[in-house]
């Protein structure tokens, strides 16, 4: 199978991003595996694994909250693979529980930088190529937390809710250019960052999942691959929960 286009996946040195990158490579995309410069070894391992399985991938380090680094990132991907046709905005950061009484503006701002500033910078950087091609897919990785709104998570929920707002506005604005914008909202998908979760916490979460199991990174990656495909060409501005029925779209 030949290369069908170029996909850039942020935060892809491990966890959901790594699995998404591998899935897109398996679907024929040449994949740019991005993560922070300090995580480049992990990104290179993911890219090497894709290449070993017959795919095309490069590792590219960049802080996607930094305007200059984002511009350089997209330029390097263009030079090494070609213009980005699929942008998967997956990068995240620490997610502490912070009671309202202890919440600071810095806590709020750090999440807005990850989930509002970064998507804006990335989308602006890939837009010229997508508009020239009159085709493109922007896929944001959100969270079911915009619906569950748990106490102590207001900083995270506010930023993730804003990310959904961006998705809907951009879908209307970019639709005339045949660029779709959607958001995938996973539930609790246990990955490396959840290694310290207790058995009680895991069991408690499952009591509210109709399918009675945890989702896997492959469940999320399959949804992203669908949105990147031609089969999703008429789907835009949507939030797709991947959480076994724990929440519903509105």
Strand content: 15-25%
Give the spatial strand order of the biggest sheet: 3-2-1-4-5-6-7
Main beta sheet strand tally, sense and closure? 7 strands, parallel
Query: How many E-type strands?
Result: 7
Number of helices: 8
Given as residue ranges, the uncertain stretches (5+ residues, pLDDT < 50) are none
**What top-tier CATH class fits best?**
Alpha Beta
Q: Look at the structure and give the mean pLDDT.
A: 95
Helix content: 40-55%
Sequence of secondary-structure elements? EHEHEHEHEHHEHHE
CATH overall fold name: Rossmann fold
The CATH architecture assignment turns out to be 3-Layer(aba) Sandwich
Full CATH superfamily name? NAD(P)-binding Rossmann-like Domain
Radius of gyration, whole Å: 17 Å
Overall, the morphology is globular
For the termini, the CA-CA separation is 38 Å
What is the total number of structural domains? 1
Pairing-aware structural class of the strands and helices? alpha/beta
Descriptive account of the structure:
There is one protein chain. The chain is α/β, with parallel strands linked by helices and 250 residues long. It has a single domain, classed as NAD(P)-binding Rossmann-like Domain (Rossmann fold), CATH 3.40.50.720. It contains 8 helices and 7 strands. It has helices at residues 15-26, 40-52, 67-80, 105-133, 145-148, 154-174, 199-206, 217-228, and strands spanning 5-9, 29-35, 57-61, 86-89, 136-141, 179-186, 239-242. It has a 7-stranded parallel sheet with strand order 3-2-1-4-5-6-7, with helices on both faces. Helix 1 packs parallel to helix 2 (40-52), helix 3 packs parallel to helix 4 (105-133) and helix 4 packs parallel to helix 6. It is globular. The N and C termini lie far apart (38 Å).
